[in-house]
UniProtKB/TrEMBL annotation, chain A:
Belongs to the binding-protein-dependent transport system permease family. CysTW subfamily. One of its GO terms (molecular function) is molybdate ion transmembrane transporter activity. It comes from Kutzneria albida DSM 43870. InterPro entries: MetI-like, MetI-like_sf, ModB_ABC, NifC_ABC_porter. This is Molybdenum transport system permease. Residues 49-252 form the ABC transmembrane type-1 domain.
Automatic annotation (TrEMBL), chain B:
This is Molybdenum import ATP-binding protein ModC. It comes from Kutzneria albida DSM 43870. GO terms for biological process: molybdate ion transport. It is an enzyme of class 3 (hydrolase). SUPFAM superfamilies: MOP-like, P-loop containing nucleoside triphosphate hydrolases. Its EC number is 3.6.3.29. It comes from the Bacteria. It holds the Pfam family TOBE.
Length: 261, 366
C-alpha cells in the first residue's frame, strides 16, 4: 500500500525474483517438448504422481489433526516448560531432512524401540512402506502449520475467547464457535504450506522410507533417480512438479498464503 | 436481582488489590481510580479471568471464589457479564448472531435466542444493524451492540470496563444515556469501572474510589464527587483540594496558611477538614493582586494543557510558598494565557474568592 520505499530496493528485489523465476525457465528450455507427454505419462511417473498427491494429502490431514491441537496448547497453555516445547517443535524445520529421516529410522525402524514396539503390539512394520512416507512428510511439514497457527492464535489474543466465556459459553463452545472460525484464514495458509512442504519432501523420505516405485517413490525421489541416468525424464517429471506447485498456489490463492492479510 | 459480596486480595504484574465490597441487588456501583489503581484487576477477578490470592466472592448466594475451600468457578459458570471499552464483537458473525451468542451458548433454543437478540438490539436502538457485520459499524454502533450482547446473556452481575473510553466525544453522551435507561430499566446489579466522574454521576448509585489497589473513599455518587475527601478523588473529580484542620476563620493548612471558605455546617475547630474549589474559580495573576480575594498564594507554572475550551494550568509550590499548592489546577482562557505570557517555570499568584471555596469535614486520618 505504501508507495514510499527507497527505489534502490528494486535492484535486490529483481535479483530475488530472478532467482525464483529463472531456474524454472531454465528447466523449460532444457526440456524436449515433443517427448514430454510420453515421459510424463510413463508408469513410473504416474505412480509417483499419484503417490505424491496421496501421501501429501494424508500428511496434511495428520498435520491438521495433530498439529492444530498442538498449536492451541502451545499458544494457550500455561504449563511451565512450554517455551522449551515451542523450541523443540521447530526442530524439524531447522534439522536437515536427511537427519530427520535417520532419526525416524532409528526410532521406528526394525531395530528402533518404537519400531519393535509397533511390531510386537500391532504387528506393523513401518519402514519402506507408504505409511513411512506419510510419517516422514508429516515430520517435516507439521512445524509449518503449527508455527503459523500458533502465531495467529497469539495475535488474535484471548480477548474474544474471554468475552465468549463471560457470555456463558463453555470452553468447547468457545473453541468451536470463536477460536476456530477466527483461525480459518491462517489455518488455510498453514495447510497449503504443509501440503507444499510434504509434496517436496525428499531427504527424510529417502532415508526412512526408501525409493520403491508405487510404494515409497514420490515425485522428488523419482526426479532424483532419473537425474542419475535419464536427464530428459528428470526434467519432464520436474516440470510435472512445477505444474503441481502452480496448481496448489492457484487453488490456495494468494489470499490464503498471505494469511491474515 | 443479585447481591454481590467480595473480600479478596489479588495481584497481577506489579499491581495488587485488597478490597472488601458489597453491592446491593440492582445497584449500580461505580469504581473510580486512575491508572494502576487496581480497577481492571478487580474486573478480572470478578469475571473469573484471574484467580485471587486470597478471599471469597459470593453472587446472589452462589460462591464464585473461596480460596480457603479452593473454589474457583470458571468464567462461563459465573453469570458475570463483561463489557469492555473495545466492543470485541465476533467479526465472523452478524450483529444478530453476536447478540444471540450468549443465549445459544447456554442452551437456549435457536428461535428463542434470536428473539431475545432482537429484543435487546431494539432496547439499545440498534435493531436496524441486525444483519450487518461488525466491520460495517461505527465505534458507537458497535458498542451499542456489545451492550445488547452483554445483556442478552442475562448476567447476574454486569461489569462495565470504561465502556465509553474508546468512543469519540460525539458518540459517548448518547451511549451513556442509553446505558442509563437500560440499566435502570432492567435493575441489573452493575459494577462500572471508569476514570470519568461524569460516567459515575450519570449511571451510578454509589461510588468507591480506588488508589493503589486500596479503597480510599466511598459513598453516594453526588456526595463523593461533590465533596471529595482526598486529594486523589478531587483530582479525578476535576476539583482542587487542600487538606488541613478546621479553624474558626476557615481551614488551617499544615504549614499554617489559612484558606478562607464557606461550610454547609459549622466544623468544630481543630477537626480534620478539606477545602474544595473548582479550577475555573482560580484566578491567575502575574503580580500579587490587591483587593478583595483573601486566598492568594504564590505558585510556579508546572504545565499548561488544553482542557475542553480552556487551558488548564497545573501549579507547583513556589520557593518559600505553601507546599500544598503542588498539583492545584486553574482554568484560563487561551487569551489570558497569552496576556499573562504564561510559560512553564514562570512565577504566578493564584487567587480564589472565599465564596468559591467549600469546606468539608473529613473522617479522621484521610
Amino acid at each position: 500500500m505504501s508507495r514510499g520505499f527507497p527505489k534502490l530496493l528494486w535492484i535486490p528485489a529483481l535479483i530475488a525474483l530472478g532467482l525464483v523465476v529463472l531456474p524454472v525457465i531454465g528447466l523449460l528450455t532444457r526440456s524436449d517438448l515433443g517427448q514430454l507427454p510420453a515421459l510424463v505419462t510413463s508408469p513410473a511417473a504416474l505412480d509417483a504422481l499419484w503417490l505424491s498427491v496421496r501421501t501429501a494429502a494424508m500428511s496434511t490431514v495428520l498435520c491438521l489433526l495433530l498439529g492444530g491441537p498442538l498449536a492451541v496448547v502451545l499458544a494457550r497453555g500455561r504449563l511451565p516448560g512450554l517455551r522449551l516445547l515451542r523450541a523443540i517443535v521447530l526442530l524439524p524445520l531447522v534439522l536437515p531432512p536427511v537427519v530427520g529421516g535417520l532419526a525416524l529410522l532409528y526410532l521406528l525402524g526394525r531395530n528402533g524401540f518404537g519400531g519393535q514396539l509397533l511390531e510386537a503390539t500391532l504387528g506393523v512394520r513401518l519402514t519402506f512402506t507408504t505409511a513411512a512416507v506419510v510419517v516422514a512428510q508429516t515430520f517435516v511439514a507439521m512445524p509449518f502449520l503449527v508455527i503459523g497457527l500458533e502465531g495467529a492464535l497469539r495475535t488474535a489474543g484471548e480477548r474474544y475467547e474471554a468475552v465468549a466465556a463471560t457470555l456463558g459459553a463453555a470452553p468447547l463452545t468457545v473453541f468451536r464457535r470463536v477460536t476456530v472460525p477466527l483461525l480459518l484464514p491462517s489455518l488455510g495458509s498453514g495447510l497449503v504450506l504443509a501440503f507444499a512442504r510434504a509434496l517436496g519432501e525428499f531427504g527424510a523420505t529417502i532415508t526412512f522410507a526408501g525409493s520403491l516405485q508405487g510404494t515409497t517413490q514420490t515425485l522428488p525421489l523419482l526426479v532424483y533417480q532419473l537425474s542419475q541416468s535419464d536427464v530428459d525424464g528428470a526434467v519432464a517429471v520436474s516440470l510435472l512438479l512445477v505444474v503441481l506447485a502452480v496448481v496448489v498456489i492457484a487453488v490456495a490463492r494468494p489470499r490464503a498464503v498471505e494469511g491474515r492479510l | 436481582m443479585s447481591e454481590l459480596s467480595l473480600d479478596v486480595t489479588a495481584s497481577r504484574d506489579k499491581f495488587s488489590l485488597e478490597l472488601a465490597l458489597d453491592v446491593r441487588p440492582g445497584e449500580v456501583l461505580a469504581v473510580l481510580g486512575g491508572n494502576g489503581a487496581g480497577k481492571s484487576t478487580l474486573l478480572s477477578v470478578l469475571a473469573g479471568l484471574l484467580r485471587p490470592d486470597r478471599g471469597r466472592i459470593e453472587l446472589s448466594g452462589r460462591v464464585l471464589n473461596d480460596t480457603a475451600k479452593r473454589v474457583h468457578l470458571a468464567p462461563h459458570r459465573r453469570g458475570v457479564g463483561l463489557l469492555a471499552q473495545d466492543p470485541l464483537l465476533f467479526p465472523h458473525m452478524t450483529v444478530l448472531a453476536n447478540v444471540a451468542f450468549g443465549p445459544t451458548s447456554r442452551g437456549t433454543a435457536r428461535r428463542a435466542a434470536l428473539d431475545a437478540a432482537r429484543h435487546w438490539l431494539s432496547e439499545v436502538d440498534a435493531a436496524e444493524f441486525a444483519d450487518r457485520r461488525p466491520g460495517q459499524l461505527s465505534g458507537g454502533q458497535a458498542q451499542r451492540v456489545a451492550v445488547a450482547r452483554a445483556l442478552a446473556a442475562e448476567p447476574e452481575l454486569l461489569l462495565l470496563d470504561e465502556p465509553f473510553a474508546a468512543l469519540d466525544v460525539d458518540a459517548a453522551p448518547a451511549l451513556r444515556a442509553m446505558l442509563r435507561r437500560v440499566l435502570r430499566g432492567s435493575r441489573r446489579t452493575t459494577l462500572l469501572v471508569t476514570h470519568d466522574p461524569l460516567d459515575a454521576l450519570v449511571l451510578a448509585d454509589r461510588v468507591i474510589v480506588l488508589a493503589e489497589g486500596r479503597l480510599v473513599e466511598q459513598g453516594a455518587t453526588r456526595q463523593v464527587l461533590g465533596t471529595p475527601r482526598t486529594r486523589f478523588t478531587a483530582r479525578i473529580a476535576g476539583l482542587d483540594l487542600v487538606a488541613g484542620t478546621a479553624d474558626p476563620a476557615g481551614l488551617r493548612a499544615p504549614d499554617g496558611t489559612l484558606v478562607t471558605g464557606l461550610s454547609q455546617d459549622p466544623i468544630p475547630a481543630g477537626e480534620p477538614a478539606v477545602a474544595v474549589f473548582a479550577p475555573a474559580s482560580v484566578a491567575v495573576h502575574a503580580t500579587r493582586p490587591h483587593g478583595s480575594p483573601r486566598n492568594v498564594w504564590p505558585a510556579v507554572v508546572a504545565g499548561l494543557e488544553p482542557h475542553g475550551d480552556v487551558i488548564r494550568l497545573r501549579a507547583v509550590a513556589a520557593p518559600g510558598g505553601p507546599p500544598w499548592v503542588d498539583g492545584l489546577a486553574a482554568d484560563l482562557t487561551p487569551a489570558s494565557v497569552a496576556d499573562l505570557a504564561l510559560e512553564p517555570g514562570g512565577s504566578v499568584w493564584l487567587a480564589v474568592k472565599a465564596t468559591e471555596v467549600a469546606l468539608h469535614p473529613v473522617a479522621g486520618g484521610s
